[in-house]
Specification:
295 residues, alpha+beta, three-stranded mixed sheet, 15 strands
Length: 295
C-alpha cells in the first residue's frame, strides 16, 4: 500500500496570503463550488431519470409489445397481469440455461496471460478489461472459454440501479480469448425459441430483475444461483416479434445511452473546472481580494 512519508508532509511548503485575503478566497470558492456542486447534483439526477426511462421502455416492450391495440390475455403470473394474446409465459430454463464459470485459484492470477472475466469486468453491456486478471494460457479450460456474442450475467454483488448483481455484458471479438470465472454466468440459448438479442433486453427489464430479487441470499454481498436465474419467468413473443422488439429497443436505448454519455462528459468537465478553479484561487492566479459574496 502506497504511503506519503511524514517528512514530506512536515516539509511541504504552501502559499500563505494575508488572513483577509484567505477569507476572501474561501468565500469566493465556497460560492463558486456550491454553484458547481449544484449543477453536478442536477446532472446526476438526470442520469438517474435516464436510467429509469431506459428500464421502463425495455420493460414495457418485453411485457406488452409494441402495438397497444393487440388483444391481450391473462399471463398467468399475478404480478405481471396481461400480455399480448399470441405470447407465452414460461420459465427461462425452457429456452435458455445459465452456465456458471470456473473457480480459478486467485493465488495463481498474474498481470499478463489469458484474461479471466470476473464480476468487476461487466459494464452494462460491455466488457472492461482494464482491471482484468490473467492466468497462464496452459491452465485454460475449454468448457469456460468465451466466444463472440456470449451473453454474460453477474450473479453476485450489490443491488439497485448501479448494483453489480444482474450486471451483464456481450462478448466482442476484441475481448477474446478469455475465460469465465465463478459467479459470472453465460446464457446458452435455444435459438429456435428465444432470440439472443431479445434475451439481452429481457434480462434488463424490471420484470426480470424483480424476480431475481426474490431469490437473492447474503447480506454484505448478495448472490443468486444459475438454477434460480433459470427459474425466473420469461415472456416470449413469436420469434419474428422478438426480433422486431430487439431492433426497436436497440434504437431507443442507443439514443438514451448517447444522452447519458453527454451528461457524464459534462459532469467530468465540471469536476475538472472545479479543481482548476480551486487551484487558481489558492495559488493567486485569480485575484479575489475585492470579492463580495452574493446575499
Amino acid at each position: 500500500q502506497k504511503r506519503i512519508p511524514d517528512s514530506f508532509i512536515k516539509n511541504f511548503k504552501l502559499p500563505t496570503p494575508p488572513l483577509a485575503e484567505q477569507r476572501a478566497i474561501a468565500a469566493f470558492l465556497d460560492q463558486q463550488c456550491s454553484q458547481i456542486d449544484s449543477l453536478i447534483t442536477n446532472k446526476r439526477r438526470m442520469l438517474d431519470l435516464l436510467d429509469e426511462k431506459r428500464r421502463a421502455i425495455i420493460t414495457q416492450a418485453v411485457t406488452r409489445g409494441l402495438d397497444p391495440s393487440v388483444p391481450m390475455k391473462d399471463s398467468g403470473v399475478a404480478w405481471l397481469g396481461l400480455v399480448p394474446a399470441g405470447w407465452t409465459t414460461q420459465k427461462l430454463a425452457t429456452v435458455a440455461r445459465l452456465q456458471g464459470g470456473f473457480a480459478f485459484n486467485s493465488n495463481e492470477f498474474r498481470s499478463e496471460g489469458l484474461p479471466v472475466i470476473r464480476m468487476n469486468n461487466l459494464r452494462r453491456g460491455l466488457l472492461d478489461l482494464s482491471e482484468a486478471v490473467f492466468i497462464d494460457p496452459t491452465d485454460s479450460i475449454q468448457s469456460v472459454a468465451l466466444h463472440k456474442g456470449d451473453i454474460l450475467y453477474g450473479m453476485s454483488g450489490s443491488i439497485g440501479n448501479s448494483g453489480s448483481l444482474g450486471n451483464f455484458a456481450i462478448v466482442s471479438e476484441t475481448d477474446l480469448p478469455a475465460q469465465l470465472n465463478q459467479r459470472v454466468g453465460r446464457f446458452i440459448c435455444n435459438k429456435s425459441k428465444i432470440d439472443p438479442c431479445y434475451l439481452v433486453f429481457f434480462i434488463q427489464s424490471l420484470f426480470f430483475y424483480r424476480q431475481i430479487l426474490l431469490y437473492i441470499t447474503g447480506t454484505a454481498q448478495f448472490n443468486v444461483s444459475s438454477k434460480q436465474v433459470e427459474s425466473c419467468m420469461v415472456v416470449l413473443p413469436p420469434p419474428t416479434e422478438q426480433r422486431a422488439i430487439a431492433d426497436y429497443l436497440d434504437a431507443q436505448t442507443t439514443a438514451l445511452d448517447a444522452q447519458k454519455k453527454n451528461l457524464e462528459k459534462s459532469i467530468d468537465l465540471l469536476r475538472e473546472y472545479r479543481a482548476s478553479l480551486i487551484t487558481h484561487a489558492v495559488t493567486g492566479k485569480i485575484d479575489v481580494r475585492d470579492f463580495v459574496p452574493a446575499r
